[in-house]
Amino acid sequence: MAETSESDPFVEHRRLLFATAYRMLGTVTDAEDVLQDTWLKWNEADRSEVRHPKSYLVRTVTNLSLNRLTSARATRENYVGPWLPEPLLTTPDFAERTELADTVSTAMLVVLETLTPIERAVFLLREVFGYSHAEIADTLDRPEATIRQIAHRARSHVRSRRPRFDTDTTERAHVTEQFMAACAGGDLNALMDLLAPDVTCWSDGGGVVTAARRPLHGPDHVARWILGVLAKPESAGIALELAHINGEVGTLARIGDVPVAAFTYDLVDGRIENLRFQVNPGKLKGLTMSTSMLG
């Protein structure tokens, strides 16, 4: 992306634009591609005809994301194993902004994936970024009455599927430390004690690296699978560290300086209920980039 001045509206609103695209698409790579395309369109536009640059840029990002998401859904239907969003490192203080952090949590991005592309766009613009129904109607070129119906449907869908879990960062950090210690020590019983009776584990390897092709259920099955993966030769030299991932305390795995996995989870009554392992090498870019873009 070419140099632009700090006073340029694209630069001024870049964090908002990335945050919109990332929440729409669930991938860092696609979000950055959308920003690149938005910048190109912005530079080709007749600025004298753009009365509200911020609205123009948000509209462009949203519609480019819609187009990309619509085409991506067919690809994801043929994805090898469970599909999980690309993890993104966030700053510790981001987790303290609970409402904002929740909108980018791995759990929320998974729920958003069950919406249609238009529902996802309307939900995010309305519930996350606070746009009015009239503004969304203008952005998406739909009647306001239609937008209101879509917004109601999407909100109800998200509320029914959004998991309820503990967000206390201190407790999450404590459980994460115990999780890493049990994994590092190969302690099956300690690991099982951290898992809820109805725990489910999803792992996204994209058919590229070792991962379970189907969700795993139950403490014994999940714990044995985790320790089995860590005991494999290709896991030699792996180091686990506490990290803030998508606004939550989680675990980052590295071999040397290279991120090889991100573990996020839901914490319910002090136990891990849902584990999500992102191990697809092509989806770990957000673990090395700047973390200020979600703002």
Mean pLDDT over the residues: 89
Sheet with the most strands: spatial strand order: 2-1-6-5-4-3
Q: Can you tell me the residue ranges where pLDDT is under 50 for at least 5 consecutive residues? A: none
Number of continuous helical runs:
13
What is the CATH third-level topology name of the largest domain? Butyryl-CoA Dehydrogenase, subunit A, domain 3
CATH class categorisation of the largest domain: Mainly Alpha
What separation lies between the terminal Cα atoms? 20 Å
Shape summary: elongated
Order of helices and strands: HHHHHHHHHHHHEEHEEEE
Question: Percent of residues in helical segments?
Answer: 40-55%
What is the CA-atom radius of gyration, in angstroms?
Answer: 20 Å
Strand content: 15-25%
Tally of strands: 6
Description:
The protein has 295 residues and is of the alpha+beta class. It folds into two domains: 9-161, PhyR, sigma-like (SL) domain (Butyryl-CoA Dehydrogenase, subunit A, domain 3, Up-down Bundle); 169-287, Nuclear Transport Factor 2, Chain: A, CATH 3.10.450. The chain is built from 13 helices and six strands. A six-stranded mixed sheet has the order 2-1-6-5-4-3. The radius of gyration is 20 Å and the shape is elongated. The mean pLDDT is 89.
